[in-house]
Design brief:
CATH topology of the largest domain: Elongation Factor Tu (Ef-tu), domain 3
Largest sheet: 10 strands, antiparallel
Distance between the termini: 12 Å
Number of domains: 2
Strand content: 35-45%
Number of strands: 26
Structural class: mainly beta
CATH class of the largest domain: Mainly Beta
Shape: globular
Radius of gyration: 24 Å
Helix content: under 10%
Length: about 290
């Protein structure tokens, strides 16, 4: 198994572990790739026996790597020490790429926490134990075998629509069929929805979960790009924040396991908006 640590902002590889070119190997353990810890909010009733518990949720994922930096000669070891320390001198987000021998590859979004350790052993200058610790606030491990996200085109339904101003629950007129967005992973996923072109108060509905996401008091032009990151969560128009356009009672849409039938509607039949839904299938442990 090979582990690549990549700087998220630049795509540069900081360190490849279990690789002869870097001289770094896992000799202790790589912990944190199983199921994440479970969090349950609990409380006690006042003045009487018993208490209550909230819905169980997954905690952020803690990942630790214990290894050894080695070299065949002292000058090379000194170069590798400097490269190791320089690689982790920044505090930007990283991607952990886990490449398995069976051809599968996985991706974890994480942050460096704690202090990276690189010991100096005077009596053995060709060996240097190291320890790294990462925190993945998103505990999902994403399938990165192809290196690409899943992508499904999304177009405005012709002949369908809804009444504006929006009244929840939204009631649609008959129109085109929603598109199927299949989540073939093991967990629910929050996708990114990108829309291009003219759109008046767009509404996106996942009919498989019964939830909708709507924007109010907005009309985009032909050159505009709306980016709706359901996991962020964030809403951007040409890169600028328009979070205040999100309609009250909107849901940040997720893709359930299996089929998801999703539709895009707007308040005007003259709108020409189209776009796509992108996501990575995920698991909770490898």
């Amino acid at each position: 198994m090979k582990t690549r640590i990549i700087q998220r902002s630049t795509g540069d590889t900081l360190l490849t572990i279990n690789d002869p070119s870097s001289g770094s190997y896992i000799t202790g353990k790589l912990a944190g790739l199983g199921l994440p810890a479970v969090r349950v909010t609990r409380g006690s009733y006042s003045g009487r026996p018993g208490g209550f518990s909230g819905k169980p949720e997954w905690e952020p994922r803690l990942i630790t790597i214990d290894g050894l930096l080695i070299a065949d000669e002292v000058p090379l070891m000194q170069d590798r020490r400097r490269s190791f320390l320089a690689a982790f001198s920044g505090l930007e987000g990283v991607e952990l790429h886990i490449d398995y021998e069976n051809g599968k590859s996985y991706l974890i979004y994480a942050e460096l926490i704690g202090t990276p350790e690189l010991d100096y052993v005077p009596l053995d200058p060709l060996r240097a134990p190291f320890a790294l610790e990462f925190l993945a606030n998103d505990p999902i491990i994403y399938d990165n075998t192809t290196g690409l996200t899943e992508l499904v085109p999304l177009g405005r339904r012709e002949g369908g629509g809804f009444t504006y101003p929006i009244v929840y629950p939204i009631v649609y007129d008959p129109g085109g069929q929603p598109v199927n967005v299949p989540n073939t992973g093991d967990v629910e996923i929050f996708p990114v929805i990108t829309l291009h072109g003219v759109a008046t108060n767009p509404v996106i509905t996942n009919f498989s979960t019964g939830e909708s996401f709507a924007l109010l008091n907005i009309k985009t032009a032909s050159y505009d790009v709306l980016t709706l990151d359901m996991n962020g969560p964030s809403v951007q128009l040409n890169g600028g924040n328009i979070y205040d356009a999100v309609a009250y009672q909107s849901n940040w849409l997720y893709l359930r396991r299996g089929d998801n039938f999703i539709a895009l509607d707007t308040a005007s039949d003259d709108d020409t908006v189209s776009g796509n839904i992108s996501w990575r299938n995920g698991v909770l442990g490898i």
